[in-house]
Amino acid sequence: MEAQASSYSLLRPRPSGLLPFVLLSIVGHVLLTAGGLALSWVFAGPKVDLEQKPIKASLVRLGKKRDEKLLPRKEEPPPPPPPRAAEVPVPAPAPPDKAVKIPSKDAKPEKPVDAKKTLFDAFSKAGRQEELEGDPEGDPNGDSAVQEGERYFGLLKSVVQRNYDVSDTIPEAERRTLKAEVALYIGAGGELIDVKLSKPSGNDLFDSAVVGAVKKASPFAPPPPHLAESLKKQGVAIVFRATN
Amino acid sequence: MSRLLLAALCLPSVAVAQQTVIEINQANFRPMPLAIAAPMAQDDAAKKAAAEFDSALLYDFSACGLFQVLDRKGYLADPKEGVTAGSIAFNRWSDIGAESLVKTQLSADGDTVRADLRLFAVGAGREELKVSDSAPAGNVRRLAHKLANAVYRFYTRETGPFETRIAYSRKSAQGRDIYVADWDGKNAQRITNEGVNVLPALLPGGVAFTSYRQKKPFLFVSRGGGEPTLLLARGSMVTGAAFSPDGKKLAVSVSEGENAEIYVANADGSDAKKVTDTRFFLNTSPTWSPDSKKLAFVSNRAGTPQIYVMGADGSGVKRLTFQGNYNTTPAWSPRGDVIAFTARDERNAFDLFTINVETGKIVRLTQDAKNNEEPAFSPSGRLILFTSTRTGTRQLHVMTADGNNQVALPTDKGDFATPDWAE
Dihedrals φ, ψ of B135, to 5°? Predict the structure, then answer.
């Protein structure tokens, strides 16, 4: 009885089968940790320079208008607007001809279609001109192409104007009369095919500046399809004046 | 109408017939990118003069505001490249952004240095101008100024500033002295060598200034660098001399008791007449309009120093400045449109401004560069000479009349004040 009791005692050492599993678990964890560290070292991102000075940013709000009795601050030229790619309008998906109504719980059943009346209505509509809605001075053929063209030429103007740098050495009295015209030819991809000084001003500096303005502004945005052919063959003329 | 025209041009059906026309007005005017090749010296004597000549030429083109002188470190052309259009690889110069190219050759004959300057249009690849001149070896800066002026005149059809004179007062051990120098501050000639001498005003062949040499500060004149003589003595102090552009008249401020009044006299100091009369107030710093018919001046009659304009006989006084509470040292542009002046702003910084005489619009020229004071226009009105403490001491600087391209004169350190500028 005593021997049986001592065999159940917790104080008595007895062989255990857990040891291999514990050891295996420790080895497994060590391997996993080492693997994780190795992977993080291999795929490490850029090194962080702890010596680099932090960039300080602060939020500011617009203040009130400067007191008119104070002397002005120096006028800083506004930064040039970032160049914008050509805005090619993406046509919005056309709405379905007829939306399908979802019948509600209280919806009344539709009246049965009178086939005879529908046929007469169709003949009647075909016989009269449908009244259009829109701008009474609008183009009956539609003006989306015109608007697109205006937009494109406006873009062309702004990008050339941005590069319209002329030397300060030109006398001010002469600036008032300087006028030159160039013809430029643009490919379907917006590339500059050619630029010609069609009407020189007579001032070499000004003439080279206007040709330079076009060259510096290129390549341009691709023209809309309906203008591509004309811009390639007829080109577009730009009249430059030195002053307003 | 234009919309209809554009519409017609844009439609494919009719576009074949006509070309669209775009109009662009108002160019962005900016300094011309200019490359200046190092001078090529033909012999040893010319080599000695080359550095001084080169330094003067570079300063002239850099400081005049019309050119953006390109840094030589970026030049791609062979330094031994020739000086004729046929021997120049213009693409190398256009690659660095140069629109014009200056090449010079120096040769010496005894004590005389000869310089040949050629100006090329880089885009067109051709020679635009060739000028030659010679000068004594000790005066190569003036030779450079002369050739630079030829280039300036070629472009602007105006006489350049490079052979003009400036005058200034400079602190000395005993007080202040008056100097007359080339436009770059070099070749400075000291006019006085005793006591306190301030407020120089250039006149043809001489300079007038206020001096304490006879105890009271009166107006003296030195002609041809000679001994100063008394020009005008009146009241307790005569300051702020300004000669009219037509050379006939002289305006000064005369202190009398508690007030200071503007007087207009003949250029030789005779027949001085009081043209302001504001008891207990100060009227100082007169400056002439280009047509010699009007004067701008400073007065504190409204409580603070402000700029006023009146006829040369004192008629039609009109207050010009209403912004700021301390506006002084007016200088009327030779072009007539604006008056430059010094003002103390709300941060207590002294800076330079211009005010349009017609519209009253004030434009700030200097900012956030210590104190900038005492403007003086170049004879053409394109440039302004002024003093600035931005480098630590009060030095002379030059900038364009719109406040761009602010450059220090290549003088040694010193305390410079109240500059004037004339032909």
Answer: -155, 160
Question: Is the Cβ of A229 closer than 8 Å to some Cβ of chain B?
Answer: yes
Per-residue model confidence as pLDDT tens digits over B42-94: 888 899 899 999 999 999 999 999 999 999 999 999 999 999 999 999 999 99
Q: Give the C-alpha separation, A242 to A175, whole Å.
A: 6
The string of pLDDT tens digits covering residues A79-100 is 554 444 444 444 444 444 444 4
DSSP E strands, B215-371: 216-223, 229-232, 237-243, 249-256, 259-266, 273-274, 283-288, 294-299, 306-311, 318-319, 327-332, 338-344, 350-356, 362-364
Cis before A81? omega within 30: no
Nearest-Å Rg of the Cα atoms of chain A is 40
Q: Closest residue of B to A235, CA-based? A: B19
Residue B357 burial class via C-beta count within 10 angstroms: exposed 0-12, middle 13-18, buried 19 and up: buried
Cα–Cα distance measured from residue B412 to residue A117, given in angstroms and rounded to the nearest whole number = 105
Please give the Cα distance from B294 to B315 (Å, whole number): 9
What was the pLDDT predicted at A130?
Answer: 47
For position A115, what pLDDT does the model report? 56
pTM to 2 decimals? 0.76
Q: Which two tokens stand for residue B77?
A: 């052309």
pLDDT beyond 70 at B225: yes
Close Cβ partners of B110 (under 8 Å, ≥ 6 residues apart): none
B9's tokens = 């041009």
Contact B19 A150 (CB under 8 A): no
CA atoms within 13 A on the CB side of B7: 12
Of B52, B167, B173, B178, residue with least CA distance to B106 = B52
Q: What is the CA angle B179-B418-B225, rounded to 5?
A: 20
Q: How far apart are CA B121 and CA B126, in angstroms?
A: 6
Indicate yes or no: CB of A230 within 8 angstroms of CB of B157.
no
State the smallest CA–CA distance between residue B128 and chain A in angstroms: 11
Mean pLDDT for the stretch of residues A174-183: 95
Q: Residues of A with CB below 8 A from B26's CB?
A: 241-244
Burial class (CB in 10 A: 0-12, 13-18, 19+), A79: exposed
Judged by a CB distance cut-off of 8 A, whether residue A153 touches chain B is yes
pLDDT at B180: 97
Query: What residue ranges in B137-258 does DSSP mark as E strands?
Result: 165-171, 176-182, 189-190, 197-203, 206-214, 216-223, 229-232, 237-243, 249-256
In the block, tokens 């004959």 appear at B109
Residue B278 confidence (pLDDT) above 70: yes
Residue B239 CA to residue B285 CA, distance in Å, equals 8
Percent of chain B scoring above 90 in pLDDT: 90
Q: What is the pLDDT of residue A50?
A: 74
Q: How high is the ipTM of this complex?
A: 0.81
**What does the alpha-carbon distance between residue A202 and residue A177 come to, in Å, rounded to a whole number?**
11
The dihedrals phi and psi of A12, each to the nearest 5 degrees, come to: -85, 125
What is the least distance, in Å, from the CA of B64 to any CA of chain A? 11
Cα–Cα nearest to B229, from B258, B206, B248: B206
**A238 in contact with B, Cβ within 8 Å:** yes
Which uninterrupted H or E stretch holds A123?
A: helix A115-127
